[in-house]
């Protein structure tokens, strides 16, 4: 039997279906002047939010202080952008609005799930252009149909897609400039990370560790998209660190250690600081004896060559799914260049960022039962899935005492502000043979549906807790610190809060209609400060708050400001 194929023609460009009138779909060329020098000095432009964390140091701090402890109770919605999409890849229940809005001179650039990117007027919320990447519906995703944001430089907007591609768009029109593949979707590699622009490169990391892939970082030329280097985060036999994997077999080739959260950068050391993900399989350590470098580690990567210069492993031979992907916050204390990292395992690590030397380790969550880490760095495992079919309960659960959602640091107060998840889980080992593109967890996992708590906790650089704002539910969204002595933090139940950065007192609250699992940012246009927060509950909710798996998703960006003066 002969099958005749008919040319179906070109797919409709969904970016053209936004109802924009001719001439209204072009943004001013504000990104043309964004170069490496401006990114290095981003804090000198507090009216803008130029990169994922606001600045290379990852502090998520803005010196803007128009909105402050005295007047924050007066802020209200300035405008709302409705993304209006429902999540098609991997099922509607998995999508989440996680991005950090980028703002350049009055224009906002924002990404969503399903391959969406938007350019908006940052003062009014009016859409300028939109881009929709055609992502296959059957892409394998472990933990949600999500995207954490874009990067901008030299007239382009950079973002990744769920099917492991890096795209460059024209920042004025949203039209595609170049498109590069950097992961194998057949092996279940994917991408969710917000790119980071450093020098003449765009740097991205891969996702997919739960499917048994080998993690990597990649750098591409800003202008051409030409591949510059790749840094594998699991060594192959014969490379440094390979002795921490079984000598026989291919455990290393499916070892995980994906870098699915944006790194930070210090131009003086020329090092990129990145957290790596869990080993695979997540919970069955018998098939990967050893410490399994460079999983669950903070790695320092030479940004020019892609070579790992030093590492610090937070959870050797992880059996609890404790990725160390959380942000590496750069700060100074007594003239020493340091790095702060709140790990999923429940401990706050302070390292010397020039050489990886351990400075101090302290717990930041109340319940830690999986094991213990002493102040001198000795790790002792106590409870873990060991016997086939034998359930084991431990704290924190696999989403960690803090998941990917980011802490902030205020150089004004000298305090770190961390969203805490105090939730346990039960894991039952289920050995599975590795099969490409099939989940490779090594256990069945059930996260507690009750007996949980959360907080925004403030710590100084010595690990001393200064205050705690308590919540009945885990805190599952990034926080933002500002020069107005405020800390903004969203709750899973929809409240968006402003806390006093020095005392933790709740000063203001607004119900946004959907839970928070995103990155609020702040900026200023025409002398008016705005606070922007994407709202859209979802993602891997069964991992951090299964009792709210069916809660309303939402898909809106809410922007707040003080009333306009008459």
Describe this structure in words.
This protein is an all-beta fold and 566 residues long. The protein has two helices and 38 strands. A five-stranded mixed beta sheet has the order 1-32-33-34-35, with no helix packed on it. The radius of gyration is 22 Å and the shape is globular. The relative contact order is 0.14. The model has no long low-confidence stretch (mean pLDDT 94).
SSE layout and pairing:
Elements: H1 36-40, E1 61-62, E2 76-82, E3 102-104, E4 107-111, E5 116-121, E6 127-132, E7 151-153, E8 156-161, E9 165-170, E10 176-181, E11 196-198, E12 201-205, E13 216-221, E14 227-232, E15 264-266, E16 271-275, E17 297-302, E18 308-313, E19 329-333, E20 336-342, E21 347-352, E22 358-363, E23 371-373, E24 379-381, E25 391-394, E26 408-410, E27 415-422, E28 425-429, E29 443-447, E30 453-460, E31 465-471, E32 479-482, E33 486-490, E34 495-500, E35 506-511, E36 521-525, E37 528-535, H2 541-544, E38 556-561
Parallel strand pairs: 1-32
Antiparallel strand pairs: 2-38, 3-4, 4-5, 5-6, 7-8, 8-9, 9-10, 11-12, 12-13, 13-14, 15-16, 16-17, 17-18, 19-20, 20-21, 21-22, 23-24, 25-28, 26-27, 27-30, 28-29, 30-31, 32-33, 33-34, 34-35, 36-37, 37-38
């Amino acid at each position: 039997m002969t099958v005749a194929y008919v040319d179906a023609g070109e797919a409709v460009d969904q970016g053209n279906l936004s109802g924009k009138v001719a001439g209204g779909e072009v943004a001013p060329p504000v990104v043309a002047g964004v170069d490496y020098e401006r990114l290095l000095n981003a804090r000198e432009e507090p009216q803008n939010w130029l990169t994922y964390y606001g600045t290379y140091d990852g502090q998520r701090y803005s010196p803007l202080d128009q909105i402050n402890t005295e007047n924050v109770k007066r802020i209200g919605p300035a405008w709302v952008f409705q993304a209006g999409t429902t999540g098609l890849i991997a099922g509607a229940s998995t999508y989440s609005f996680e991005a950090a809005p980028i703002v350049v001179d009055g224009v906002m650039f924002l990404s969503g799930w399903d391959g969406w990117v938007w350019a908006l007027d940052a003062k009014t919320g009016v859409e300028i252009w939109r881009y929709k990447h055609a992502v296959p519906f059957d892409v394998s995703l472990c933990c949600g149909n999500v995207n954490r944001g874009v990067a901008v430089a030299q007239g382009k907007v950079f973002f990744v897609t769920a099917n492991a591609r890096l795209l460059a768009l024209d920042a004025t029109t949203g039209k595609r400039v170049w498109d590069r593949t950097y992961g194998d979707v057949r092996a279940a590699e994917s991408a969710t990370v917000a790119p980071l622009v450093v020098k003449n490169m765009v740097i991205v990391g891969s996702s997919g560790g739960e499917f048994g892939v080998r993690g990597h970082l990649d750098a591409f030329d800003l202008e051409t998209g030409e591949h510059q280097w790749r840094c594998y985060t699991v060594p192959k036999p014969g490379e440094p660190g390979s002795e921490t994997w079984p000598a026989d077999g291919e455990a290393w080739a499916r070892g995980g250690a994906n870098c699915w959260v944006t790194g930070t950068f210090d131009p003086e050391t020329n090092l990129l600081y990145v957290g790596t993900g869990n080993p695979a399989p997540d919970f069955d350590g018998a098939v990967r004896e050893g410490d399994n470098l460079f999983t669950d580690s903070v790695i320092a990567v030479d940004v020019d060559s892609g070579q790992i210069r030093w590492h610090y492993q937070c959870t050797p031979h992880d059996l609890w799914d404790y990725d160390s992907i959380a942000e590496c916050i750069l700060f100074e204390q007594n003239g020493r260049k340091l790095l702060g990292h709140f790990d999923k395992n429940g401990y706050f690590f302070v390292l010397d960022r020039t050489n990886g030397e351990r400075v101090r380790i302290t717990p930041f969550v109340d319940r830690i039962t999986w094991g213990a880490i002493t102040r001198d760095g000795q790790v002792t495992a106590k409870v873990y899935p060991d016997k086939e079919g034998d359930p084991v309960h431990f704290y924190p659960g696999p989403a960690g005492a803090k998941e990917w959602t980011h802490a902030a640091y205020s150089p004004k107060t000298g305090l770190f502000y961390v969203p805490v998840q105090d939730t346990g889980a039960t894991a039952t080992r289920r050995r599975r043979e590795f099969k490409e593109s099939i989940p490779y967890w090594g256990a069945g996992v059930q996260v507690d549906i009750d007996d949980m708590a959360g907080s925004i906790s403030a710590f100084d650089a010595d690990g001393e807790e200064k205050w705690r704002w308590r919540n009945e539910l885990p805190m599952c969204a990034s926080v933002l610190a500002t020069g107005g002595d405020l800390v903004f933090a969203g709750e899973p139940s929809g409240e968006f809060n402003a806390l006093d950065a020095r005392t933790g007192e709740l000063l203001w609250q607004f119900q946004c209609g959907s839970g928070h699992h995103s990155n609020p940012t702040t900026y200023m246009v025409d002398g008016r400060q705005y606070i922007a927060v994407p709202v859209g509950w979802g993602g891997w909710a069964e991992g951090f708050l299964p009792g709210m798996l069916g809660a309303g998703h939402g898909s809106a960006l809410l922007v707040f400001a003080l009333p306009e003066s008459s």
